[in-house]
Structures are given as structure tokens and as C-alpha cells.
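Review form for a predicted model. The reviewer records the input and the model, then writes brief findings.
Reviewer: anonymous (R2)
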Amino acid sequence: MINTTSTRLWDSNSNIGSPIHRLDEFAYFGNDLGSVYTKEKTTFTFWSPEALSVKVKLFATGSDNEQGAKVIDELPMNKTADNVWRLEYLGDHKNEYYTYIINFKDRTVETVDIYAKAVGVNGNRGMIVDLKSTNPEGWDKDKNIFLNSPTDAIVWEVHVKDFSHSPSSGITEKNRGKYLAFCEHSTLYGEGIVPTCVDYLKNLGVTHVQINPFYDFGSVNEAVNDDSFNWGYDPKNYNVPEGSYSSNPFDGNVRINECKQMIKALHDAGIGVIMDVVYNHTYQAQGSFFDLSVPGYYYRYNKDGSWSNGSGCSNDTASEHLMFRKFMIDSILYWAEEYHIDGFRFDLMGLHDAHTMRLIRKALDEKFGKDNVILYGEGWYMGTACAFGTEMANQGAIRSMKGVGAFNDNMRDAIKGSVFGACDKGFVQCGASAERIKSGILAETGSWAGEASQCVNYASCHDNYALYDKLILSERGGTGYCERFDYLVSMIKLSAAVVLTSRGIPFFLAGEEIARTKFGDENSYCSSANINQIDWENTAHYADLILYYQGLIRLRKKLAALRGSNKVCDSSSFRFIDSAMPCVSYAIDFYDEDIKGHIFVALNPCDYDVRINLADTGLSKDTKWIAVVNKHSAGTAPLMAISELALVESKSALMLLDEAAYKAIFKR
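Model under review:
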């Protein structure tokens, strides 16, 4: 059946500013690509307009190294009037595996279906799957975590294996580093007093986890259950969960079921799932399933015929070509619908064209409601072999991409120094970059962002040094990674206060709140699991730091004026208080439903205390304030009453609410 909605979305006339590839003339707009299973028949539909003939090769197993391995049959496909190859395979053939054999003018190749929804071990054969049979118990009642505004999200970035690989996670040994680790509860560190894993996340208060790639990737051998590790930014089969995180990668059903169990367990805990997706390049260039299916179409090439390499991974995909654009949108919708994904983070989003990102936003809005599914990505400016004039999805295009956000590298580097200089210092170390901090507090709405929800503010992520490691390097020359240095912990608290009191979407690396270390490893993408794992023992050593993050999160959830939704920005006034320098300080006058109130925030990066005259906020000197954040504590409990003069301790944040607003908000 042709999907008429897709036809409208893919209309090449809307492809303004992008070149039309010669094969776009043969683009297919149906919604049935891949294999579609019923008990009566399985229908294969495949797009390869230059193929002379195509066969479906069927297997009993996902590889030749399994018991019962054999070829079942080879069946010819027929080319149809709508430029696809199609085969109706009669009978119930659930769990059979398949590839396509394609005969071109100059060669014959065998490939996996790029639309495969299930695969065998290591993803070298597609599998006919009954998706309903993969649903865990209660899946029909599973609910997405959708928020009123993307700025209500608080995102914790984690890797499936990092999450539970360490014995200190309290996870049963068979599930460590697996999807099912997210399904265990009452997990405790040590002698049973500190919760870990999902129970820990519930206590911490984050609204979403962003999970590093968990589609099928090519850099880990799924057939060997060992400690092999990779971040997973090397896609092999986009529409299938990674097998090494499952209990049985040889059965194509298991990884799907256990991935869904992971997502349901997080939803049951009230936590949304943001999927890290990598459509800008593939695991390999020549010989990839895309390259084998339609040679020369799905990628960008330099004028000399070499592969475009803006990604640094030896290939750049061509989102501006209609059928890769279609693939991206189909794939995103599939994960959102079949797996109940709540948001997507786009790796190297700046390599995609902006029009494709707008269409992804539109397609999700039509299915799930406006801006309910969160979208953001890396909006870096990157060179790639795209036609001159093509609008790329970088920070410069964010204002034109409503409902799509980008990471704020300005805030990242302003907080603790450039990621490109290990010893470079930022605001929390020495007070540098105060003006850039101000820009980030306003969610870059004075620069590249059109609204606060388009800005993701953060100090650390999986890339580059963990925050504690960066501080160790810049302050101590890289010695003592496993030691606790309280003056560095104060800097982490100040960093957290900057991010969690700023407008936009706050984001932090899993374990930032327990001074996580990777022992100075700047690029741990293929380092050992022991280097990358979260050491849950730190929850005991840094309980005060966890409590500080918890408190800031509780405050942010209570105070919409901090978050900066469009509604809040329209109904509040914001002003920086320059007389409070060297602190970065600001005041917000806000209306929250029927409550009129005032917030004062001061961020002191200095090695000495600073006193601020609260009359400089523009309010009456008789205004009474309640402190809810200081150097030692953060949360909704009152710390002290303050009037006239505020003391901001060294390397710390201070947040005050006027007394009337405090009583109204926290007592209601």
C-alpha cells in the first residue's frame, strides 16, 4: 500500500537548495520496504532501480556456524511499475533468515536488506520477524514520557555496558552490561545502603536517559560473550537492536524483546529514553549494505570520485538524496512507533541537510503531537561534499529548524575550558569566559538558538574528558584520578549549578554527579569496559555531590522560570546584574500560574567570598529572601533567610527566592 502522507513529505519539489540525484527520478514512496510478515505470507519489497535481477536467498540460521545451518531456497523477485522489486513468499516463514542477491550489469553482490527489522548474529543476515511476538508482557500498556516542553527534560547520558558492567552495580552477573540490567530493581552497592542503576536514577530525579547507540553496530563480535567494548558509532543495521547487549545474539527475536524490556523498565520508572542515532556515516563505506544495494547513490563523493569524509569515518551519507532521506525518516518513525522511543539525538547532525531534519520533525509531530518527541543533535559546522547552497543542519540553521535543538559547545567550553586543550581553564577554575556563560544561561537565544528549547546545555558528555578528569588535568596536571579533592568537587557543584539554572535542556554525562573518572582517557570509544564503566562505589564516596545534583534537579522541576519554556520566557523578565562582578549574577521576575515571584542567582568562580548588595536586583531593599542553594546544599528546603547583603562563598552558587514566592510555591 502506498503511504500518501509520505508522498507529500518526499515530494522532490520541496527539495529546495539540494541537488537531485539521477536515481531520485525512480524514488519509491511506499511504506512497505523490507520484509512484512503475516502467517499467510511474507512480502519482500526492495528498491534497487539499476539492478538487472534480484533474488531472495533464504536460510535456516543467521550464520553458517550454527546447528541446522542450511540454505532453504533462492527465489526471484519481480520488478514492478513503481520501481521496486517485490516477492510474495507464501506460507508461515517466521524466523527464517534472508539476504538479497543482486545482479548488476558488471557484478553480482549479496547484501542484507537495509530495512531489515531483525537479524542474525553479527547482523549478516536479515530475519523474517513477527514483531508482535517480541513484545514483553505489558508492552501494550507502555506509555511514552512526553513533557509540556523540551526544556522540562533533564538528560543523563549513558552507555548500555557502562551502566552495569562493574560488579559494584549490584546487577546479577549474567545481566551486567546487558539490556536486562535496566530491568533489575533493589540493586544496591556494598552492604545494601546505596541504590544503584534504575533505582538510583529514580532518586536522582532525571527525566530522560540518552543511551549511546544501541542499534546493530559493527565493531563488536556478538558471537563472543566477552568484555569487548565500543561506543557503537559505527552503524551496520539501523533498524535492529545491537546483539551484544542481549542474552542470545543468535536468535533475532531475543535482542528485540530485551531491548523493549529495557525501555519499558525505564518508562515504568518515569524515565524517558532518548536514542543516540548515527545516520551521517556507516560502519564501512565500500561494501556497506547501502553501497551494495544501490552503488554510488546513498553516499557523497568528492569531485575526483573519492568518498566524502566530513564525518572522519571514511564516508558521509547523502541525506539530500530522496531515498536516503526517506530511509532516515522511516527509520526514526519505526523506532518511535515500534520501540516507544521518546527522543532522538543525532550524531554529527551538521552533516545532514536542514530540510531533512525539518521533515523528520514534521513526521514525528504528525504521529505523536507537536514537539512531544525530543529532537536535538550535534550542530557542528562540518565540511562535506554537498552541493553549494545546500542548507546544512548546523547551529547556523537552528532558527529555521523549529523543534530541533543542538548541543551548546559554547557553554561546554566556557564552563571548564576548551575540549581541545587538556589544560585549558574555564569559568569554574578561574572565572574565565563569564560573557560566554551569560550567553549559555540565556540558551544562546541571543546568538544561534531561536528559542530556549533548541539549546542543550552541558559540561561533559561521552566525548572528550569526563568533567572530573578535565579538572584533574587543568588543575593538577593529571595526577590523582581516583582521589577525592574537595576543591575540585566544589567546581563540579558550581558547574552543575550553571547548567541546571540555565534556560534550555540540561544534559550531563552519567556519573558526572559522582565524580566519574576514565583515568584521563580522552577518547575511550574502544578502550576497555573497565575504563568506561561507572564505578558505583563512588555513590558512597560522593554522597554530598549526588545530593547537590538531586537538589538542583528538584528546584528546576519546581521553578519553571529557570527552564525557559516559550510560555515562561513570554511571562518573565530577566536581567544580569553587572555590579555583582566577578560573579555572574542575574534576577528573574516571574509569574507562575497565580504566583508572582523573584529569583536571584549568583555564580562565584573566585577563590574568595563575594558580598552582593541585593538592592542591585532592582527590588526593594526590604525584600526578604530565602536561600535554597549555597556552596554546600541545594534543594527545596530553606537554608537561611537573607536581606540586604548576600554572601556568595568561594567556588559556589547562591540561589534566592523572595519569601512570599517561596512559601507559595513550596507549600502548595
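Findings: The chain has a mean pLDDT of 94.
Further findings: The chain has 18 helices and 29 strands.
Recommendation: see findings above.
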